[in-house]
Amino acid sequence: MKFLVDENMSRAIVGWLRSQGHDVLFAAEAQPGATDPAWAALAEQEGRVVITQDKDFGELVFRDGMASHGVILLRLDDASVADVLARMQEVWAVIEANPSSRFIVVTETRVRV
Questions:
Q1: Over the stretch 62-86, which tens digit does the pLDDT of each residue have?
Q2: Distance CA 59, CA 55 (A)
């Protein structure tokens, strides 16, 4: 799968995704400080699913009607990097079953597609 990982995410998440064979564009490596609309447009153009902890992507998709190849919003407040990575691994089967054009919200106890 192809992902765009928002710059608010940990490099450990990027490393894990890459170790699983995914094509990952990490915003913090590519162009730190670029706007969310610019990243969302690039992700759509390149067929990438956005992984973020930033609710602004939800507003772009639902409020502003921006096209999206998919968004995974991690709502794991105050979780350590290790906890975020563990939660992603726990729910990965759900993510793989809904790879594109979905908005997936991951919390500590639920996954909504």
A1: 988 888 889 999 999 889 999 999 9
A2: 7
